[in-house]
Every structure is written in structure tokens, then in C-alpha cells.
Amino acid sequence: MPEVPKPGELIGGRYRLIEVAGRGGMADVWRAEVEGDLGFRRMVAVKQMHPALAEQPLYVTMFVEEARLGAALESPNLAEVRDFIAERGNYYMVLEWVEGVDLGTWTRWHFERGEGPRWELVAAVGVGVLRGLAAGHERLEDGVVAPVVHRDVSPHNILLTTRGLVKVIDFGLALAADRRLEATEPGS
After folding, report:
1. What is the C-alpha separation between 150 and 175, in angstroms, rounded?
2. What does the alpha-carbon distance between residue 103 and residue 183 come to, in Å, rounded to a whole number?
3. pLDDT digits 0-9 by tens, 144-174
4. How far apart are CA 136 and CA 145, in angstroms?
5. Of residues 37, 142, 152, 170, which has the active-site annotation?
């Protein structure tokens, strides 16, 4: 089984893992820093496939496809996929670091305070989510519309940034006509 990475480890010769920022069913997301030439540094997110899944070709293909489709999408309302690394049996997707909170946490915070969010904020979040999803639905591949359907739109896959943007994340279950492998059964 691939070795589990540790904080401080350097991935791809440029990405220093700092701490696990989130855990999911298929991967962990690390807060990391890219170490560029001449002291350049920038915060990034490194999504690392769970080592047990990294030994299963179906899951590796799904992870690679998530990176490929994510890299093909451009919108201020999507987290940008910046790099992909296969190293020492592990697989990593490098994404833009999004400083903020997920929609589920945000709504729970309002609920626990006993007050709803302002309607203007709710409308802005809705518009941001729709813009992100539209970028997938309007994707062009060689000048032809090649839609990507997210299929996992949920509060934990919507981030609200400290700069007031909405970012849709995690295209791991996305459906696209040019997807090299369909990993879900019909009706799933």
C-alpha cells in the first residue's frame, strides 16, 4: 500500500503539505504551499486520494477523470484545478486554495443563532452556484459544446469565500459524454 504522506512532506518537488483541512470518502484535502523559484510561495489545496483506493484502478481512473474535467472548466465560481501528480503510489490533485466556509456550515451557523441569512446573500449564493454549474454545462471541447453535469451539488460542495465569491467544488461524480469511464451504475 502507498505510504501515507505526513505534514511537511514535499509533493511533486514543489508542494509542501501543511495540514489536513478536510476528509472525504475518496480523498483528503491538505492545506499546502507551493514552493516556487527564488522564494515564491502561495497557498494551494492538495487533494490526496486515500492510499487504499490508490491501489484500485477503477478509483484511480475516477480521480484522474475528476482532475481532467476540472482542469477543462473555467469560471470564477469553480475551484481551479492547477496540477496533477502521481508519486510513490499516491495520487494528488492540486487546486486553488479557497479561504472560506462551506454552505452547510454557513447555514448551520445561521440556524443555531435562530436567524435566517439576509435574502440578498441567499440570492447571491444561488446565482454563484448557478454560474459555476453553467460553466460545466457550457464547456466547449474543440469548439463543440461538451457539457459536464456535476451530480453531487450539496452544501459541503459549495464554498463561500472570504472575498464574497461562491465556488462549486468536487466534480468527482460528474457526468460528461467524453468521460473515459463511467464509474456509476444507472440509477445510482
Report:
1. 7
2. 27
3. 999 999 999 999 999 999 999 999 999 888 8
4. 10
5. 152
Closest CA to 101 of 109, 93, 90: 109
The model's pLDDT over 5-28, given as tens digits with 9 standing for 90+, comes to 999 999 999 999 999 999 988 999
Within 10 Å of residue 19's Cβ, how many Cβ atoms? Answer: 9
- What SS3 class is residue 135? helix
Give CA–CA dist 93/65, Å, rounded: 11
Catalytic residue list contains 152: yes
- The secondary structure of the chain in percent helix, strand, coil, rounded to multiples of 5, reads 30, 35, 40
Amino acid (one-letter) located at 137: H
**pTM listed for this prediction:** 0.88
Neighbours of 81 (CB within 10 A): 21
Render the burial of 35-70: b for 16+ CB within 10 Å, e for the rest.
Answer: eeeeeeeeebbbbbbbbebbeeeebeebbbbbbbbb
Identify the H or E element spanning 144. strand 144-145
DSSP string, 37-89: GGG-EEEEEEEEE-TTGGG-HHHHHHHHHHHHHHHT---TTBPPEEEEEEETT
C-alpha cell recorded at residue 84: 496533477
